[in-house]
Specification:
Blueprint (H helix, E strand, L loop, with lengths): L2 E4 L9 E3 L12 E10 L2 H8 L10 E2 L5 E7 L11 E4 L2 E2 L5 H4 L10 E2 L11 E5 L3 E3 L6 H21 L7 E4 L5 H12 L3 E6 L2 H10 L3 E4 L5 H8 L5 E5 L7 H7 E9 L12 H6 L3 E4 L5 H12 L7 E6 L3 H10 L5 E5 L3
C-alpha cells in the first residue's frame, strides 16, 4: 500500500513516500481496519521525524498521529461500528485495564501509546486500531472538517474544559493562534463564555483570529507579552494561559497570569527546560497543569461538537499523500493558519 514513512530519524529529508508497504490485517478481537481518506498533520509528526526519547522505529515506519476514513473490516466481536461507516480516530491507545483507564483517565494509562510514534501511523491507505478508538460520523460532516478535527480538538478540549475549567467571564490567553490546537482552544473558550486573547507574529493571522471571535490581539514580535497583558488589564492579568511553546514563552506566560491563575500546557515546541521563581508561584497561588490528548469521554464530547456543527477548525491547505514531505515542510515553516491535511484516498 501507499504510505508516508521514515527509516531513520533526523530532518524532514528522512521522510519517504513509498508504495510497497504491507497492508495491515486484523490480528485479534476488538479491532477495526480503517481505509484512511484524509489525515491532518500535527506538530507531533515533526517531533516524531526528529526523534523522541525512547522512540524505536523499524525501516519503513509509517508516521502520522491522526486520520479519518471508512471502516473496511472489523473483528467478529465488534458491534460499535461496521464496514462502510465513516469514522474519526482517537490517536491515543490505552490498555483499558490499569487503574487510570478504569477511572476513565485514558491519557494517563501506564502503557499509553500514540499512533505514528509508538505504533504504525495514519499516513497510509489503511490502519488497524482498537474499536474503542474510533467514532462513527454522519455524511453531513465534510471530510475536510473531519480530517482537521481529531487530535487538535480533543487536546484543546481536555486543556480548556477538563484541566483549566474555563468558564464564563474568564480571560484566556492563547499563544500562537496559527495552529490547530490554539484555534480549537479559541473556539472552545468562546463557546464557554470566556474573553479570549491571542498572540501571533503575523498581523494577518491575528485578523483572521479576530474573525473567529478573538477579543484581544497581540503581535508578540519583539515585545514582552506578559507586560503587554498587564498594561491592558490594569496589572490584573488573565485567568488562564494556554502555552504549548515552552522555553521561549514561559516567563511571559507567567507574567500575564493573574492571581489564582491557571496555566495549562500540552507541549514545548521551543524547548523543554523551564525556569520558574517559586516565590511568585506560591505568592500568586497559581495552578500549573500539564495536559495530553484526551479520554474516551473527552473524545465523545468533541465528536458531538463536530457532528452538531459547533466545532469546525480552519483548513490551511491540502496535499496528496505523495507530497507529504512538502506538506510537513509547510507546517514546519509556521506559515500555515489552520490544519494542513493530507489527501490519502485516490
Amino acid at each position: 500500500m501507499r504510505a508516508l514513512t521514515i527509516s531513520s530519524t533526523g530532518s524532514l529529508d528522512c521522510v519517504e513516500f513509498r508504495t510497497d508497504i504491507a497492508a495491515p490485517v486484523l490480528t485479534g478481537p476488538g479491532q477495526v481496519r480503517v481505509r484512511i481518506q484524509a489525515a491532518p498533520l500535527n506538530h507531533l509528526d515533526l517531533w516524531t521525524v526528529r526523534g523522541l526519547p525512547g522512540m524505536s522505529i523499524a525501516p519503513g515506519w509509517i508516521i502520522g498521529a491522526d486520520g479519518m476514513g471508512f471502516v473496511a473490516d472489523v473483528s467478529d466481536d465488534v458491534t460499535t461500528v461496521r464496514p462502510g461507516d465513516r469514522v474519526v480516530i482517537n490517536s491515543g491507545i490505552s490498555c483499558r485495564q490499569c487503574e487510570y483507564c478504569l477511572a476513565g483517565e485514558h491519557p494517563l494509562c501506564v502503557k499509553f501509546r500514540v499512533l505514528g510514534e509508538h505504533l504504525a501511523g495514519a499516513f497510509a491507505e489503511e490502519i488497524v486500531v482498537p474499536a474503542t478508538n474510533v467514532r462513527a460520523i454522519p455524511v453531513s460532516v465534510s471530510w475536510n472538517d473531519a480530517a482537521a478535527f481529531g487530535l487538535a480538538a480533543m487536546t484543546a478540549w481536555r486543556m480548556l474544559v477538563t484541566r483549566a475549567k474555563v468558564q464564563a467571564g474568564d480571560e484566556v490567553l492563547i499563544w500562537g493562534i496559527g495552529g490547530g490546537v490554539a484555534q480549537a482552544a479559541l473556539l472552545i473558550a468562546k463557546a464557554r463564555g470566556a474573553r479570549v486573547w491571542v498572540t501571533s507574529g503575523s498581523d494577518a493571522k491575528l485578523e483572521r483570529a479576530r474573525a473567529m471571535g478573538a477579543d484581544e490581539l497581540i503581535n508578540h514580535t519583539g515585545i514582552d507579552v506578559g507586560r503587554e497583558v498587564r498594561a491592558r488589564t490594569g496589572k490584573r492579568g488573565v485567568n488562564v494561559v494556554v502555552d504549548s511553546v515552552g522555553a521561549a514563552t514561559w516567563e511571559q506566560s507567567l507574567g500575564a497570569l493573574g492571581r489564582a491563575g491557571r496555566l495549562v500546557t500540552c507541549g514545548g515546541t521551543s524547548g523543554p527546560a523551564l525556569q520558574t521563581d517559586v516565590r511568585r508561584l506560591f505568592w500568586n497561588q497559581w495552578t500549573i497543569m500539564g495536559s495530553t490528548m484526551g479520554s474516551d469521554a473527552e473524545f465523545d464530547a468533541v465528536v458531538r461538537e463536530l457532528v452538531e456543527g459547533r466545532l469546525s477548525l480552519p483548513v490551511d491547505s491540502t496535499y496528496p499523500l505523495e507530497r507529504g514531505r512538502e506538506a510537513m515542510q509547510h507546517l514546519q515553516s509556521g506559515a500555515q493558519f489552520g490544519k494542513v491535511v493530507l489527501e490519502v484516498a485516490r
